[in-house]
Amino acid sequence: MDGVYRVSLVMVLYALALGTTGTLAAKHVVTWDLSSDMNSWAKGKTFKVGDQLVFKYSSGLHSVVELSTEKEYKNCDIGNALDSKSSGSDEFKLTKAGTRYFACGTMGHCDQGMKVQIKTVAGTDSSSPSDDDQDSSSSSSPSSTTSTTPTTSAAGVQSVAYLLLIFALVSTMSLFHVV
């Protein structure tokens, strides 16, 4: 019977290790101000379905509006925004592959370059959170870093599934005295 417990422990640890390698979602922090070069920052990133954008800015001075078309984005036409937020720490979840357009809703800020387009891919491979070690502020301030936080999206569910499978396997093996 002691062997069953050892095998069970090894299998549980293995399942946990497998489960932690699941798909990770990242929080990409966007420094939302007029001095930031958001599009250069965005071009250097890979945004995946499940990731989140977090726009950080001074509430009352700026806002974030999501635009529906590239034409609205290029012309800074914020009149028909899909969404508008103004808390100073606004989150947008990237739910599908494609391009999304964001601009500042404060009069004149979009025309001054305070806008960003985000291209989201449908990839499911894990990426290192270190890919997001620089925020969207200009390269003249390299001391700024993001607070990118990877969050497990499928790993928890995957771990539970592995544990249940292993438990069933070990239970069956112990019933037939295989171990």
TrEMBL record:
Pfam families: Cu_bind_like
Cellular compartments per GO CC: plasma membrane
Keywords per UniProt: Glycoprotein, Membrane, Metal-binding, Signal, Transmembrane, Transmembrane helix
Region (Disordered): 121-152
Transmembrane segments: 160-178
Entry superkingdom: Eukaryota
Gene Ontology molecular function: electron transfer activity; metal ion binding
The Phytocyanin domain, residue ranges: 26-122
Protein name in the entry: Phytocyanin domain-containing protein
Protein species of origin: Papaver nudicaule
